[in-house]
Sequence to fold (469 residues):
Amino acid sequence: MKTGIKTLRENWGSNLGFIMAATGSAVGLGNLWKFPYLAGANGGAAFLFVYIFLALTIGTSLVLAEIAIGRYAGLNPVGAYRKINKNWAVAGGIQVLASLFMLSYYCVVGGWLIKYMFDSIPNLFLNSNTNPHLFKTFFENFISSSFEPLIYLSCFLLLNLIIVGAGVKNGIEKASKILMPSLLVILCIVLVRSLTLEGAQKGITFFLKPDFSKITFDIVLAAMGQVFLSLSIGLGSMTTYGSYLSKSENILKSAAIIPLIDTAFAIIAGLCILPAVFAFGFSPSEGPGLIFITLPAVFEKLAFGQYFAFAFFLLALFAAVTSSISILESCVCYLVDEKNIGRLKASISCVATIFLLGIPCSLSFGSLSSYKLIGDRNIFDSADFLVSNIMLPLGGVFLCILTGWIWILSLKKNETQVDDKNKDSLHGPIEEVTNNGKIRFPLGKVWLFILRWICPGAIIFVFINSTIK
Fold:
């Protein structure tokens, strides 16, 4: 079968580079934006406890599966799925499409962050009037305009193009080694200021002192959905990043570290935001408007608020970029592997396509607000619903089935079709994770059980629940 796959392939310069990039993929707006308001709306510490448990069990299992598939095949999601079973290439294609559609609206929000970051310098959205309606009006006037948000969308996409176009080692890895430590430093600065605010203790207690009686089925589902979103499950990003790993790397260790760091960032983000929100009497369950409406109101009340606002939105921008470049790389890698297109050309093609898709998403809050695609959702919300509620769950289920069942069945079939000389190249998921027995993995059978039964069931529950709602 002709696939147009190149034999020369980039690799990570070091395992640390991979960890930084993969962690950056996980640490995104989901941690800084969605996690705090979900925790606020779902009982604080009760949600946090459930989230940590699911992230370190189911989340780790899925991340390990994606990395294993990527390194085994050394290809993009389409090529990797095809290598395991040629009939499953379409499942990898769904992941690549999900990445493309997700970036169409994710990058719009990334542009909003740039706008707020620059506007915080001259104090444009901060003023002496603390009426929260003014912050809402400022935000709504901005996103409903036809031209300005597209300028910031272009800036965000250009930043992604520069990084991804430079390559894996010289672009993504170098950027991640700078952005991730910078992200942590800025996060700690905001954390210290938030925790030292008068009245912050109420927010700390709300976030860290669990009331297990508040744990409900809805909280479990909300936490599960956030785990999938935060770790980018079903987008093929980890498969793509895993494809650049050498066969000697310990991917079991890496797959454990990534959810741990991602969870730590989410907890720190919650401690940055919720104590400040409580300190100034705002609701912790403001929803998506928390980062663009509630937080500016909080910054306005702080001494030197514009500097902390700039630091926070710079922090959010870094988080958005580390995630978006991993999602973009999944699309670029597909073109490079499958179509033999050069990296720079592939990067430009993907960014141009995302910009065109991003235009209606951006305009859906203004001139195209009357257009509804899925139910009463505008274009932006419809794209989000399509990716988050349909394509990501599908990608997650496909990942579980491919790793837990198809890979092993295909292995047994292929073993009868190759000679003894080439049999060493054929091995299953356990062998890939253990580097053919060189690394101990006593929970290997438990991992496969989780992938075969627990993860698909959990994903289907989230899918049904979110689709009905």
In short: Residues 191 and 271 are 7 Å apart (CA to CA).
